[in-house]
Every structure is written in structure tokens, then in C-alpha cells.
Amino acid sequence: MALAGAMYSAQALDDSSLDNSSLARDAAWVSTQSERITPRATGLADNLWNLAEMGYQETRSSAAIQDHLTEAGFEIETGIADIPTAFVASYRQGRGGPVIGLLAEMDALPGVSQAAVPEHSPIEGQAAGHACGHHLFGAGSTAAAIMLSRWLEETDTPGEIRLYGTPAEEGGSGKVYMVRAGAFEGTDTVLQWHPSDRNEALPQSTLANRSAKFRFKGVASHAAAAPERGRSALDGVEAMNFMVNMLREHVPDSTRIHYVITDGGGAPNVVPADAEVFYYVRDNTAADLEPVWERVEQIAMAAAQGTGTSVEWEVIHGNHSLLPNQTLNRLLDASMRQFGGIEYSPDELEFAKSLDGLANRPGHEIGDQQTIVEYDPSEAPLSGSTDVGDVSWNVATGGFGTATWVPGTSAHTWQAVAAGGTSIGHKGMLLAAETLTLAGIQLLRDPALVEEAQREFERKRGDDFKYVPLLGDREPPLDYRK
């Protein structure tokens, strides 16, 4: 797999109270298993990359992951939360023991079709691409779940592995519906990862996020012959956008607001009777988000009143911020360091250097994939959002990223799609699978680590916390990408 030699961090190991000799011994077992499972894992990743199915439409992708798990002896429960592509795959050994959950995403993004080449080359007839690397996420977590099941069997250790097939992360909040349906009840800890352009297990939070489509209705008329009879729904959208843009001066620095007009009418000489604008609002936590969201709703009503139109809105998705867990993240950091960073072959290095339009973000340079970012316990929030946040407020959750993309690559770009379809993506995915497996073994071997993570989780969540999904009681928007 051309992984570099182990890069140890005594500080991380000391802080997490881990036995270094136990880690090294278990890491050797994981490496052997990883070599055996590599062809199947990379084959699954490539299959998902080629399918490139969007949110809630991942029928073949979900089935492919389930097939791998069924062959490995997992029991599958499908249709979780009334979502056809959501599932939970379980493998149990003996009675009792920790229940360890792994997350597996699978959805692609629209508008970023791309071949696995270092110049922009959309694939004809393909509407989407894995610009966030969820094909690697799904396949890597599946590989880890299978390796953990083999360890349970070989060692006859009591415990259970649950692989959660979670669709529609990109704007569909699939995990939120699964949480709301109780799919994570009885799970002691959750481990998850995400494709990235570097290797790190930092305990960072994310922003809470809610989105909605605001639909204005007016009265159509001939824009030239009878303009006085018309009431433009597009005027309602534009009035709303104008007032929201004024609102930006009067919100916290942490607030992020984005929108796109998804329906503005069909012809300039027809006063539009229908128009729609799609909004995202983000902030540090759900508590910070709520007052800003209320003002956006008030603006929508004011825009309708001022333009003689009406408005209604449909909440599409809502995600809580991510609740970091230092116990689990230190475990993941120490586990990743047993395998080290990623070495490029000459062909991979040539691909990386010739990747057209590479962002080359400061501090993200080719060569960084060989190292692991120093552990930083500050919990500084990221600027993005994820439905993993809702999982983390219900189960102690740890996560990390590996360099599946060329350093300097931004997510949601064709460059990310291109690298994700090559051996560069495979190497990052395999490092993630090995890290998940080694960390999972430590939790299964030592339930005291699970208890430590749970105590931290309860302390940070607080005694008064009550989970309320930010998307309310709406049903999953299974057609939101159609």
C-alpha cells in the first residue's frame, strides 16, 4: 500500500492512556488484514465512484455495500427511517461487550462529473461526481467493519460492530432522520472519518445548519400589455434577498447565509406567478442559529406583504453542530500514527504535480500527505456543516480525515473527483480503514475507554440538553435531487 513508516506521538499516547505495545501489536494484525482486503475494498470504492448516485438515489451503491457486508456475515436491516437506501449492518460475537458504530456515506454531488485524469474532463452523460469522496467513505468504513468482525471472531471477544449506511449527507440530512428514528440507540460509541487533503484527527466542531426553499406565489399577466394586473413572485424573491443581504450587517460574525434562486420565471414578458429561492443559514450551534433563522422567516413574510404575493417555505434539512470527543479523537490520532502517512509512487507524484487548477492552499502542499498533523485539542470549529453533528449529540463520536486528495485540493471540486478515482484516493481510504479498525479494537478490548468517552460526552452535552432535530417532523425529502 506504499504507506510510510510509523510516526509516533508520545504526547498523544500518554494523554489518551493507551498501551503503546498493545497498539503496535494490534497494528501489525490490522496491516496484515488490510493487505488481504485491499482488492475488494478498492474495487468497491471504484464501483461507487463510477455509479456516482446522488442523495436518496443511491440504490445500487447501497446494495453494493450491503452485498459486501452480507458476504462477511453481517445481518442487514434496510429501509431505516423510511429511507430505502439507509441501512444498519450488524455483526455480534458472544454476549455483552461494547457496541461500536461506524458511519458509511455514499452520495455524490451534482454538477461535478469528472474523469480520473489531472485536467478538467467531464464524463459525457454523467450528471454527478464524488467531489466529497463519499465513495471512499463508504468503502473504507465497510472494510474496517469487516476487519473488526474478523478480529472479534479470531479473539472470541464479546462485542458488536454496527455499520450505518447513511445516504444523502450533501443537503439531505440522512443521518438526522436515522437519529430521529432511534437507529443509534444502544450504540456505545461511533467512529467516523472523511476524505481530505491531509491526515488529521483534530477534535473540531462544525456549524449548525438549516435550509429551506421559500416559494412565492403571485399573479401572472402580460408584462407589457397589463402589468398592473400582475403580482410578481420574482419580486417577492428579490425583495427577500435584498432584505436578507441587509441583515448580514446585523448578525454575529459566526453566521453564514447563502442562497440561490431556483425558479425565477420562464419568460421576461410574463409576470412570474411562481418563484423560489433556496436558503442555507449556519451558525456555531443550534441555539445561535435559531434567532437568525427566525429573522429570515420574518423577512420572507415581509417580502410577500410588500410585493402583494404570498409565501410558504419547506425546511429541506437541518444539522446540529459537531460535539467533539477528545477521548475518541486522541485514540484515533494514536491509531493513525501507528500506520504513518502516505507515500506517492512516481506515477502518483506526477499526477499530483500536473493536476490542473490545484488550489495550493497555504499550508497544504504536495508532500504533506506523508505526515500526520500535530494533534490540537482546541476544538476550533470548521466552517462547514455535516449531519454527523446530530449523531454526535446522541452518541459519543470521534472522527478524523485522511489524504485521499492531493494536498491543496478543496472539497466539492473536480480535482477532488479526479484524485478520488485513482490510487491516490485508494491509499487515503486504506489508511482510514486501518485507523478505524485499530481504534475499534482498542475500544472492544478495553471497555474502560468506552466509558471514558461516554463520561466526556455526557459532561459536554450537559444535564439539561434535549435533542430537537432542526428539520422538525418533516419526512425525508427523497426527491430533493430529482
TrEMBL record:
Pfam families: M20_dimer, Peptidase_M20. Keywords: Hydrolase. Residues 211-304 form the Peptidase M20 dimerisation domain. It comes from the Bacteria. Gene3D superfamilies: 3.30.70.360, Zn peptidases. SUPFAM superfamilies: Bacterial exopeptidase dimerisation domain, Zn-dependent exopeptidases. NCBIfam families: amidohydrolases (TIGR01891). PANTHER family: PEPTIDASE M20 (PTHR30575), XAA-ARG DIPEPTIDASE (PTHR30575:SF0). This is Amidohydrolase. It comes from Microbulbifer flavimaris. The lineage of its organism: Bacteria, Pseudomonadati, Pseudomonadota, Gammaproteobacteria, Cellvibrionales.
